[in-house]
């Protein structure tokens, strides 16, 4: 249980800014205008000048409308980008229809929108744009105005040449589209891998910083906790049997809480440590029992069960994983209204643990930013056990998720979706070989926690 899972760190690098498309279209408008003006006035060719500039003006009006309607940083969806590129193909086809169809050497520009689509859009939309370009090229090979020529003559190219141009456009669209998509996809995969690595390193850095803070906190808090323990013992000695039952109970509770604080600080300073001896490995049912046993005295109903296929899995003790799981259970108890369920399952291939409650569930912010530090929805006036407690720092889920995923697990957060059910659901899943890695074979006694852990009368906080 020592692998680090990087699944889920994927960044969508396809969506391009609208500003990119607008700038490319302005470049096309400038080139088309220069070509029309140069052919009409520079070479003296007979062009339908007004109609050509009307088609070019349509692109200009679309650009101006997009610039006014959307900000420059607006990112286009795949469908919007495909529609804009389809407009460019149709606009180019209209211009070529007026200037000779496929006899016009600029018919090669059919490749440009398809090439842009291949680098920025999914293959399905690139295929649709390619079919649109080929369809319009086929239409232009059959129907078009004459190629502009000098006023004293007219040129008519043979149909075999037109067929060759059509074939070149077809093959060029297919080859450049596939080639550009393959290169762009490899670039995207590399960028996503780098982004995932950066996120993992950032999380590890945060956790390393917290490890140092935990050690410092344990060192600094050790002295005042020791002082509180000494003062408590002195009060017990001074009061003796004359103390009222309420005072004696409060002093006993104070000593228990000081011991608990010491235990927590000890865990924080040894999350990456390992325990040896005959307790070096633990069965899955024992792990669940250790997880829920400290919470038996709480007022919320806490149930645990385990069921599986084949022999019960055995894992090496990992204090970091136990700390992360305990943190998730604590959160479930904090937000549950009446019930928390811890359900363990295993098969021959996978080992999973599901923790669910009947509380309000995860907020959309937590679901979107799960695993990031300093994300919390706890308000300062939150009431637990009849008492008002302060807001959290938003580190508990981050620490728990990072520690658990270090073991090779996949952790997912969701809300109950079945009719009549509510609450948060946390699912942790390991591949069985990873879960059992490092466990030495030994005889594990039979143990079951299939019965609810509420056989004892719960004691309110």
From TrEMBL:
InterPro entries: 2C_sensor_his_kinase, HATPase_C_sf, HATPase_dom, His_kinase_dom, HisK_dim/P_dom, HisK_dim/P_sf, RegB, Sig_transdc_His_kin-like_C. Pfam families: HATPase_c. One of its GO terms (cellular component) is plasma membrane. It is found in: Cell membrane. It is an enzyme of class 2 (transferase). Coiled coil: none annotated. Keywords: ATP-binding, Cell membrane, Kinase, Membrane, Nucleotide-binding, Phosphoprotein, Transferase, Transmembrane, Transmembrane helix. SUPFAM superfamilies: ATPase domain of HSP90 chaperone/DNA topoisomerase II/histidine kinase, Homodimeric domain of signal transducing histidine kinase. It comes from the Bacteria. The chain crosses the membrane at residues 24-42, 48-68, 104-121, 128-147, 159-181. This is histidine kinase. It catalyses: ATP + protein L-histidine = ADP + protein N-phospho-L-histidine. Its main location: membrane. Its EC number is 2.7.13.3. Residues 216-434 form the Histidine kinase domain. It is a multi-pass membrane protein. GO terms for molecular function: ATP binding; phosphorelay sensor kinase activity. PANTHER family: SENSOR PROTEIN CREC (PTHR44936), SENSOR PROTEIN RSTB (PTHR44936:SF10).
